[in-house]
Amino acid sequence: MTPGAELDPETHRKEALENIAAAPDEGSLEELRVQYLGRRAPLTEQLSKLGRLPADQRREAGARLNSVKAAVQQALYDRREHLRGAGAGTLGAAEAIDLTFPGRRPGRGHMHPVSRVWRELEDIFRGLGYDIARGPEVETDYYSFEALNMPAGHPARDGFDTFFLDTGAGTAPAEPGEVVAESRILLRPHTSPMQIRYMETHEAPIRVIIPGKTYRRDNDATHVPMFHQVEGLLVDEGVTVADLKGTLEYFARAMFGDDRRIRLRPDHFPFTEPSLEVHVSCMQCDGSGCSLCRHSGWIEILGSGMVHPNVLRFGGKDPERYTGFAFGCGIDRVAMLKYGNDDLRSFFENDVRMIRQF
Amino acid sequence: MPLRISMDWLREYIELPESAADLADRLTLSGTEVERVVTLGSGWDGVVVVRAIEVTDIPGADHIKRAVVEAGDRRAELVSGAPNLRQGDLLAWAQPGTTLPNGMTIAERRFKGVTSQGVLCSPVELGISSEADGLLVLGTDGPTGMPLADLMPPDEVMVIEVTTNRPDLLCHLGIARELSALLRRPLKAPMPAPEESTEPSPLTVEIAEPELCARYQARYLYGARVGPSPAWMQRRLRAVGQKPISNVVDAANYVMFETGQPLHAFDAARLDRGIVVRRARAGEEIACLDGRTRHLAEDDLVIADRSVAVAIAGIIGGADSAVSAETTRLLLESANFNGVSVRNSSRRLALRTEASTRFEKQLSPELTAPAVTRLAELLQQVAGAGPSTAALDVNPGATDAEVIAVAAGYVGTLLGIEVADSEVTDTLEALEFQVRSTAEGGLEVVQPPFRRDVRGAVDLVEEVGRMRGYNTLPSTLPGRRVEVREILPPPDVEWQAREIAAGAGHDEVINSSFCGPADPEVGIFPTPRLALSNPMSRDQAQMRTSLLWGLARTVSRNVAWGNNGVAVFELGHVFWPREGQELPREPRSLGLAVHLAPGRATSDAGTRSALLSLKGLIDVVAEEVSGVVLEHRQDQVPGLHPGRSARVSVGGTEIGCFGELHPDLAHRLDVPGSVVLGEIDFEALAGIPRQIRYHAPSRFPAVVRDLAISVPDLTPARDVVEALSGAGEVILRTVDLFDEYHGTQVDGGRKGLAFRLVFQADDRTLTGEEVASAEERIAGLLRDRFAATMRA
Q1: CA B653 – CA B631 distance, rounded (Å)
Q2: Which of A221, B52, B370, B471 falls between 20 and 30 A from A278, CA-CA?
Q3: Contact B171, B450 (CB under 8 A)
Q4: Is the CB of residue B517 less than 8 Å away from at least one CB of chain A?
Q5: Which sign, positive or negative, has the C-alpha torsion B478, B480, B482, B487?
Q6: CB-based contacts of B737-741 (< 8 A; 24+ apart in sequence)
Q7: Does residue A272 belong to the interface with chain B, where contact is any CB pair within 8 Å?
Q8: Residue A213 touches chain B, beta carbons under 8 Å
Q9: How far apart are CA B337 and CA B367, in angstroms?
């Protein structure tokens, strides 16, 4: 085509696209790019002359030329991609690595399921502004029973199946008829002794949870002699049963899922009044009834209540001024429910095939 | 033990068109937990009342007998192994094809050549009772051949768990009273009116221990005729799990299950002059109703006549004064005993009875009068007894009812909602409390005699809360504006330690805190162990002082399960007794253990590598948690390999150890290969908070030089490293001992050590001369101190 000659856009486009499609490599493709789209290319020249055309022809001519330019650009791009793909074919075959081979995992260990739940509990209550405390597993009778409104001979003591320590001096196992002395040493059968210890050393308002090991003489599919509990204690002015309900509902939903509901059932513990057992709607059947919830739709998860005025007094808090609530929850039980394990003992056999699932 | 409540019996005292299932939820959500509802009479199709007319031994069979039974005009032959199979008794016969409540379908079976045409049923098989106790015996008199359901009409039984503070609910009247308040329906309590004589009682009553017996009431009746109790009474007692015995005993039991007050009937003819409530004498014994003789302790309270003990107070009656077929004169006991005393005796004697479980929860002395009056009335009805004397009543423990003050608005304030005064009053009155308004707008509340558990205003909040239903409360979060005080500490460093150990490939285990005298001491904490006085077994009789043996055992168990090469860790408490202190020290301890499977891992090089990895992991934990550098000293440690163990300390205080488990102990655990393990007192680390201070890295180039030396074989590598680090060369920034070798390249008796030394200054580029002279000084020091030779 001679310079200055009128360019037929359609013919020009056809010729360019045929040449581009036939380009054998990226080098010749670059030559074609200069030939059709370079500074001196006819299409470029025509475009630069558009301004000289009368206004009424300018728009139509411009649109035609620009559509040819766009088509050539697209063809160049497509052909380049095609040529590169073909080149990759050779490199791919030469240096291929089969990435469908199983990934190589770092040698990562796993936390025990009870630890996982324990940590989650701490996180939930830390978020509500609770302190986290720990207390002794070997405890005195005073903190375990006496100061919790269970004086010697109280019938509720029987339910705790307590382990006692041999305090030396050749003391034989206690005679059941013997009056239990205040200094008797035992393995705490619940985390509640820490209610008193914490109140003794902290001013109100108090918000604390105390997770830890507890011990009872018990051994079956849902009881082991060593287990884990978390105690909660909140003492302040104006604390209500509705606050207890709200707090435990928050906990249940945070732990078991936002769509869980809770139910309160009156119960009796000597150290709280009123005392309430907390049930959560069954996480397996959502309340319609299944074997997990024994067809009741509800699963008991913890015991709770308003701190008994006598217990507040033992902790050095004036029950005329302060009220509070407390709760005790089995961490292992939460783990069983959360992960669907119905044999508590399996958690403590420590088979790493169990632990590695968490 | 759970309480059984018969719906048929309950309807005696309150109108209840509802089924037991409908009532169960109401009761449960008000605090009386109904565990389950048992339907009596379902699965009884095909069960027929029969009489055993002939009972014979089966030749060659010791434990089973053959019985011929009569069912109307039919006869059947049956085989039974029950010890109480007796000729003449009325029994329940499940015919072939019957499906019993426990799901068992009955078929004909042959035993020793005798065909049993079905089975004779026990109360367990019929769903009446949960305790195996031979065959269900339906008395001796009466027709046969009709369905069992005709003799025992269908009933529903609620199995209820009553909390220890509510002994008033351990009876049908108590549950009826609770339902009456819940449903606001009238209660129809019995108003007993026995025929009374004006004659004085021929026997006297004396309480020698008023502290242990607050009240003793007795009634004397003539002319009783002992025999079976009527069918309705037997049916109700069976429904609640009691075995009918005789009209007198059954009536006493009946009144206990009606009113909650345990009662006892003595054969008055066998009592010497009267009753004395006293402590047992040293060496005293009593033959009890259950056929066993018990030795009494001086703390035990007994009921005695003027010469011997005739009952253990509140627990069980004596055999010698028991009602028998010949009995005609009765002394009825209705007493109130100290709960702690009954509980202690019951525990010491390992004997829990329906009576003791009630008394130990401390009953009200007010209960005795209506109960003994009711029993006298019943005995006149069912045992043909004559008029009763007026009740002898020794009542040393009479107390006034407590008045509980409740401030205006208190109930709602504690619940967290508005509660109208009228709701409080109405609820408490429905529960038989007396309520008076005070001038200040509060209330004065008087407990009914059977509600001794209600002592303070907070107990009354519970009464209102449970009657209204706690689930109607809103869910709120507590909080008010308070001044800033102490800030909450960050998450405990133990989580960081767990992350590091798990990140290094160790799985976390939780071993038992218990150990036994046979478990060896492993580790550096050989303090005497705490011992339990009531362990569950001998191997769980002590508290662990170290985690190591438990970890070794866990490794060994895992290997037995096929988990070769496991790496585990534990972070838990150990227990160290403290001289002169009531409670032990309970530090948290961090333990790590790795199994080395036989083969390359247990070669010297493999074991060395595993031990150094474990050591490095312990070092990393200490550095991350506390920012401390641990010191290690090669030394023997109990339970570890003598040549492959070291003690770990920080700031001169020993806090742990690591090494290979002693081969003898590995052998004892039967673990193939070996175990490397280590432990540190995590409490010591947790007590040192890590302080992080930033140092700008040098911007001038570092000079790296490798240094190879040979030293005498027994030179500890640590000494050489410390000498280099402590040589006073300020430009020597790091000393990395990266290799140790023996063999042809070094002379005999010596070993090679290879170091990488990095020289750097913060303020300039080092010159070649500076580095070379530092190297020279270092070489000189190594020659002088360790007789080292430099290698090219």
Answers
A1: 9
A2: A221
A3: no
A4: no
A5: positive
A6: none
A7: no
A8: yes
A9: 12
Q: Average pLDDT for consecutive 10-residue bins of chain B (792 residues)?
A: 92 95 94 91 88 90 90 91 89 91 87 90 82 79 87 89 93 97 95 92 93 96 93 90 92 97 96 94 94 94 95 96 94 96 92 94 93 97 93 86 91 95 95 94 93 93 96 93 85 95 97 96 86 93 96 97 96 93 94 95 92 96 95 94 96 95 96 96 94 92 94 91 91 93 82 94 94 94 92 72
Distances (CA, A) of A266 to B32, B465, B467: 8, 9, 10
DSSP labels, B259-312: HS---EEEEGGGS-SEEEEEEPPTT-EEEBTTS-EEE--TT-EEEE-SSSEEEE
Q: Which residues pair with A263 in a beta bridge?
A: A279
Cβ contacts below 8 Å, chain A against chain B, sum to 245
Instruction: Provide the strand spans (E) within B450-491.
Output: none
CA dihedral B469, B470, B473, B476 (to 10 degrees): 180
Alpha-helical runs (H) found in chain A: 9-22, 26-37, 42-48, 55-94, 113-127, 141-144, 193-201, 241-256, 309-314, 331-339, 345-349, 352-355
Which of B510, B566, B589 to mutate against chain A (most A CBs within 10 Å)? B510
The answer to whether B554 contacts chain A (CB < 8 Å) is yes
Distances (CA, A) of A205 to A233, A328, B640: 10, 19, 50
B418 contact residues in A (CB cutoff 8 A): none
Residues B314, B333 contacting (CB under 8 angstroms): no
In A263-292, which positions are buried (b, 16+ CB within 10 angstroms) versus exposed (e)?
bbbbbbbbbbbbbbbbbbbbbeeebeeeeb
Beta-strand ranges (E) seen in B121-185 are: 155-161
**Å between A72 CA and nearest CA of chain B:** 54
Residue of B nearest to A295 (CA): B36
Which chain B residues have a beta carbon less than 8 Å from that of A350?
A: 509-511, 554, 557-558, 568
Q: Which of A140, A247, A355 sits opposite B477 (nearest CB)?
A: A247
Of B347, B462, B567, the CB nearest to A273: B462
Question: pLDDT grade, residue A323 (50/70/90)?
Answer: very high
For residue A24, give Cα distances in angstroms to A34, A63, A74, A80: 16, 31, 17, 10
The percentage of residues in chain A with a pLDDT greater than 70, rounded to a whole number, is 92
Q: What is the Cα–Cα distance from B661 to B638, expressed in whole angstroms? A: 10
Q: Give chain A positions within 8 Å (CB) of B417.
A: 242
Q: Do the beta carbons of residue A347 and residue A335 sit within 8 Å?
A: yes
Task: Give the residue, A24 or B612, on which the prediction is more confident.
Answer: B612
Judged by average pLDDT, the poorest of A88-97, A121-130, B114-123, B249-258 is A88-97
Instruction: Please state the φ and ψ torsions of residue B398, each to the nearest 5 degrees.
Output: -60, 130
User: In Å, how far is A147's CA from the nearest CA of chain B?
Assistant: 17
Q: What is the ipTM of this complex?
A: 0.85
Q: Check residue B564 and report its DSSP letter.
A: T
Q: How close is the nearest chain B Cα to the Cα of A247, in Å?
A: 6
pLDDT by residue (tens digit) across B222-252? 999 999 999 899 889 988 988 889 999 999 9
E strand or H helix at B457? helix B457-468
Q: Return the pLDDT at B131.
A: 66
Asked if A138 is an interface residue toward chain B (Cβ–Cβ < 8 A), one would say yes
Which strand (E) or helix (H) includes residue B610? Answer: helix B604-626
Residues A221 and A344 sit within 8 Å (Cβ to Cβ)? yes
**Best mutation target, A219, A352, A355, to test chain B (most B CBs within 10 A):** A352
Give residue B490's pLDDT: 87
Q: Which of 518-547 (B) contact A at CB < 8 A?
A: 530-536, 540, 543
